[in-house]
Design goal:
This is N-acetylglucosamine-6-phosphate deacetylase. The chain is an alpha/beta fold. The protein is built from 10 helices and 21 strands. The protein has helices at residues 73-84, 100-116, 148-158, 174-183, 197-206, 227-233, 251-260, 311-321, 326-333, 335-340, and strands at 2-12, 15-25, 28-34, 43-46, 51-54, 56-58, 63-64, 67-68, 88-95, 120-125, 162-167, 187-190, 210-211, 239-242, 265-267, 280-284, 287-292, 295-298, 358-361, 367-372, 375-376. The strands form 4 sheets. Strands 1, 2, 3, 4, 5, 19, 20 and 21 form an 8-stranded mixed beta sheet that branches. Strands 6-9-10-11-12-13-14-15 form an 8-stranded parallel beta sheet. A 3-stranded antiparallel beta sheet has the order 16-17-18, with no helix packed on it. Strand 19 and strand 20 form a beta hairpin. The longest helix is centred in the N-terminal third of the chain and has 17 residues, at 100-116. It starts with a strand and ends with a strand.
């Protein structure tokens, strides 16, 4: 069966094309072009002048729709459905710090799910290898140093589906752990860290290629101590995550990041269960979280505990509030995260040979339809 999308305003990392058409067969894009001459197909979808962009990819999120990713298969399914309705077609499932046995169990659940659902890209261990001083919404009782045997345990439990690990590089054994993880094909991120500019650069030289939610849970930029963010700005090998909800990072600081690290910004949600759900009381791992007016904090504190963000809102915030060009904003939720994961050859573009993942948006960047692997999912 073939599907022909036509009459689109296409926007991806290669640029904008008006009157765009795309022919899909099965789960992949067979051909693309523009104009009135188009191939025939079993089914046609009139995009009617709306934006067509690649499916959004979220490198970092913990749940949504009232469900958390560490609460088992049913909860994961509910959370994924909430984010897919907002344009996220491929997801890395993030886990907060928990006891090792629970992390191994969660990694196994995600590995099973990744085998049955190609839209699940694998897991992200945001904990437990974090600085206690910058732990954010991670239980300090479960923070540990990244010793070799612990890293091997977690790699084994993930059965090859561990995509990303966040590490504070100043911890004992952290640099050796980076070596092991990089050799295993895992993307290593620097985050929840007290690292200096110099120690962050050393982590990047050892193979770390990502900065977890830049500016948050790490030293800020100081004129005598530039810190991790400036180290990432100056290293073309490194991509910076941004939680662009207007609360974690001011839009003008986000604009600065886009200017300083062009094509190296990946918008992420870091969403907890309340994303796409209502205010109220929730759990993030073992900790209680209160959500009021869309802001999630550890109960009884002012510590931000993830977000209630979805990728479409991040896209609009980048364009409307931070003044980022639509092309750069779209790349930050599509091609850039695909490249970070080593999947830039099949995800993040609307071109022949790529996965048939697409989001149709109106002229205010509101999601209309979501397609993944050639099927409409929202």
């Amino acid at each position: 069966m073939t599907i022909l999308f036509h009459g689109a305003r296409k926007l991806d990392i290669t640029g904008q094309v008006d009157d765009f058409w795309m022919l899909v067969r099965g789960d992949g894009i067979l051909a693309t072009g523009s104009g009135k001459e188009m191939p025939t197909a079993s089914e046609t979808v009139d995009v009617d002048g709306r934006w067509m962009v690649p499916g959004f990819i979220d490198l970092h999120g913990h749940g949504g729709g009232g469900h958390a990713y560490d609460d088992g298969p049913a909860a994961i399914g509910g959370a994924l459905a909430a984010h897919r309705a907002h344009g996220t077609t491929r997801t890395v499932l993030s886990l907060v710090a928990n006891p090792m046995a629970q992390l191994r169990e969660s990694l196994g659940v995600i590995a099973d799910l990744a085998e049955s659902d190609p839209l699940v890209l694998g897991s992200h261990l945001e904990g437990p290898f974090l600085s206690p001083e910058h732990r954010g919404a991670h239980n300090p009782d479960f923070l540990i140093d990244p010793s070799p045997y612990r890293v091997d345990e977690l790699l084994e439990a993930s059965r090859g589906t561990l995509r990303q690990v966040t590490i504070a590089p100043e911890l004992p054994n952290a640099l050796d752990a980076i070596d092991v993880l990089v050799e295993a094909g895992v993307v290593v991120a620097v985050g929840h860290t007290d690292a200096t500019f110099e120690s962050t650069r050393e982590a990047f030289d050892r193979g770390a290629r990502l900065l977890t939610h830049a500016f948050n849970a790490m030293p800020g930029i100081h004129h005598r101590a530039p810190g991790p963010v400036v180290a990432a700005f100056g290293d073309d090998r490194v991509t910076l995550e941004l939680i662009l909800d207007g609360r974690h990072v001011h839009p003008q600081v986000a604009a600065l990041a886009f200017r300083e690290a062009p094509h190296r910004i990946a918008l992420v949600t870091d969403a907890m269960a309340a994303a796409g759900a209502s205010d109220g009381d929730y759990r993030l791992g073992s900790l209680n979280v209160t959500v009021r007016h869309g802001l999630a904090v550890l109960s009884g504190t002012s510590t931000i505990a993830g977000s209630t963000l979805t990728q479409d809102v991040a896209l609009r915030c980048a364009i409307d509030n931070a003044g980022v060009s639509p092309a750069d904003a779209v790349a930050a939720v599509t091609a850039t995260p695909a490249r970070v994961l080593g999947l830039g050859h099949r995800l993040g573009r609307l071109a022949p040979g790529f996965a048939a993942d697409a989001v149709l948006l109106d002229h205010d960047w509101q999601v209309g339809e979501v397609w993944a692997n050639g099927l409409r999912i929202a």
